[in-house]
What we know:
By secondary structure, the protein is α+β, with helices and mostly antiparallel strands. It has three domains: about 1-155, Beta-Lactamase; about 165-255, no CATH class; about 260-420, Heat Shock Protein 90 (2-Layer Sandwich), CATH 3.30.565.10. About 45% of the residues lie in helices and about 20% in strands. The protein contains twelve helices and 13 strands. β5 (about 125-130) and β6 (about 135-145) form a beta hairpin. α7 (about 230-260) packs across α10 (about 310-325) and α10 runs antiparallel to α12. It is elongated. The protein starts with a helix and ends in a 7-residue tail after the last strand.
Amino acid sequence: MQEKLFLELQEFFTKNMYPRSVFNHISPILAKIFDIQRIVIFKKNVNSSVLDGSLEFFEEWCDTDIPSRYDNHQELKTLNLQDIYKDFEQTLARRKLFIIDKKNKVMRSDGVKQFYNESDIKSFMVIPIFSNDDFWGTVALHDIKKERDFEESGLSLTATMIGYHLSSYIQNFEMKQVLSKVKENDHAQKMFSLGKLASSIAHEINNPIFIIGGFASRLENLVQDNKLKLDDVKMCSMHIQQNCQKVTNIIEGLRLMSRRADREELEVIDVNIIIKRLLDISKEGLQFEGIKLETEFFADELLVECKPGELSQVVSNLINNASDSLCELDLEDKVISVKTYSHNNKSIIEFSDNGPRPNDEVLDSMMEPFFSTKSSSKGTGLGLSICKEIIDRYDGNIFIDRDVQNVKFVIELPLVEFSDF
Length: 421
């Protein structure tokens, strides 16, 4: 049951939604996981430091038969950090949960004592949220009906894991917000492509690292509590290995893109590998733009002789062009499709999107140097001409399919057979 609920949570964390909307969606799921009746989110005042600032009420969720604690109590909607710092010191410094339940009833701060004694709360647990190393806010879980023992039930470990996921989501969301502001700045448009890629890479690496850290912490806590079982080790190890492989794939994609062509040697490589590695570091940026990515890879290897860094540049240019074009269109669904297959001893790569195909006059000029349909701040018009030059170098061909209604670029590269060596 809990595993299914966890999957529901992760689904919302990967969507391009604002925090308030995410919290509204995940609160009923958290209530089921922890069997609690009220959830309250507080956010640190952005203009305050950790010590002299405040936590401001952000959102509240209540079960159907539970009254709101904040609707008619404006004075409760601001918590001065100085008033609660004695109790929240470890939460802020070491990201530890703050728990008041059967076993933990020690409250050193007058603000926390007053908050608890004047409430209907029997037990509560506070999950801290951090963005990078900055304290963002808290998620407080209130049990109104009974006193609990969160640690004995194992729910404190679950809360720690959810804290990692929430922190990862907030960090990625804020990164996207910064990127969005960069897009609006005309002066920064020429650097936008690089900034978008950097943000996407940071997200793709941060997410598995947060998960790895969470499972490592879980193993450590189980060892300390003498509750470690073989099934726990297998489960945590599996998730850690999976996420380590994700990071490895991203780094391999970066390595491909950063190669200098003048120092790179020709290699025989599967084109599927090059495309998959590039998509690994591009898919988050596409998702942020509301673009769906569809892929269909040929089951067998498609071996070609090329400089992998140069071929990755071609793939990146075509994906970025499709993304830029779709972002300028008012479409309900935006889709980029990538397909590979073999035909007549050639490796075929198709890049298509669901935008309208340009007229014949534009199609005739698209591969020419300095031709561009974008504004000058978004491109020089060299991207497609460079792609053509690279593909020609490998005795291949790149063209636009004029027999379809949408935009489709087709690349043909000669397949390498063992008899060629």
